[in-house]
Amino acid sequence: MKSTYRAMQITRPGFLELVERATPLPDAGEVLIRVEACGMCGADIGDIEQANPAHQPPRVPGHEIVGRIIAVGANTPAMWKTGMRVGLGRLGGHCNACTQCRRGQFQLCQNQSFVGANCDGGYAEIVRARATGLVSIPDELSAEEAAPLLCAGIATFNALRKSGAQAGDLVAILGIGGLGHMAIQYARKMGFKVIAVGRGSDIAKEVAELGAHGYLDTDAADAAEALQRMGGAQAVISTIGDAEAVSGLLPALVPQGRLVVLGGTKNPLSVQAGHLVVGERELVGSITGTPYESEAALAFSVLVDARPRFESMPLAKAGEAYQRLKRGDVKFRIVLTMGADPA
Questions:
Q1: What is the mean pLDDT of the chain?
Q2: For the chain, which end, N or C, has fewer CB atoms within 10 Å of the first or last residue's CB respectively?
Q3: Tell me: the pLDDT tens digits for 83-118?
């Protein structure tokens, strides 16, 4: 193991710098991972823009991490061994002691770090991680394929499973970005009638290739009215942060339909209580998922051949990739790669 490793750290809000850091040792219950690939997520923008400059050393962003274990700390479960392929998502590992953990709600752990936000993430050759946050990676997936599935994949996979929809029901996917393009694939393979909702006609062909039965361009028509004419949606999966657009699809729900929100919004959602009450409709949030659920999402991806679409870029170009992410010049994911295995 090298004594140092390369990392892209946030030197000040909005700026990334490639540095050399001393290789740490894992604490009790932790492992050290040699990173092979790290996906870039829209949430990374907030992490980078809102980083605390007083934090020292500066934070390393990134929470779609795949690599191999190179060191294991004391009291780490025996299932995690040196050389294993593992991943780490947004949730950095539950504590096993808080009320939510005692209830088995590990994704809601009160003492869980958010990777890339309040603990170092995967824009680096090495990352230290709690063993409780680790996800086993199937051999059928390359590191670059698996990385986006640890955020965009598990988030949409779980949202669809929580949607209340059954095979044959109409499910609308709002937003056709990094999350939405996975949601379309999963929804089609789960047996739903899939209607994608986005902005602009330029994406229509790719939406069809991903498996959607139809596409609604909000620049050309009122999506809620169009869905109502189709009989209404049993579920709407929202992957975007536009509060007005999210609220605008509530009228598209059938009675007892459910709007599942994945993307945080800066502004509050506008909800007519009467619409929820008269028809028993639901508005719910969904966080990513536990490591066990992430492994289920990866297994399902292999089973049905659902794969993220991405562009690879080397770690040294993370700053350039970040600027493209901010501009929206990404279709659908950028995955940072670490290059040859360091000696």
A1: 94
A2: C
A3: 999 999 999 999 999 999 999 999 999 999 999 999
Taking alpha carbons only, the member of 41, 31, 40, 33 closest to residue 125 is 33
Whether 7 has a pLDDT exceeding 70, the answer reads yes
Cα gap 28→230, rounded to integer Å: 55
Q: Identify residue 115 by its one-letter amino acid code.
A: V
pLDDT in tens, 152-191: 999 999 999 999 999 999 999 999 999 999 999 999 999 9
295 within domain boundaries: yes
Look at residue 98 and tell me if it is in a domain. yes
Instruction: Kindly state whether residue 156 falls inside one of the protein's structural domains.
Output: no
- Do residue 207 and residue 260 come from a single domain? yes
Sign of CA dihedral 152, 289, 86, 109: positive
**Cβ distance 235 to 249 under 8 Å?**
no
* pLDDT over threshold 70, residue 342: no
What DSSP string runs through 180-234?
A: HHHHHHHHHHTT-EEEEEESSSTTHHHHHHHT-SEEEETTTS-HHHHHHHTT-EE
Q: How far is CA 118 from the centre of its chain?
A: 17
174 and 91 housed in the same domain: no
Q: Which domain holds residue 186?
A: 163-285
Q: Do 246 and 305 have their domain in common? A: no
52 bridge partner residues: none
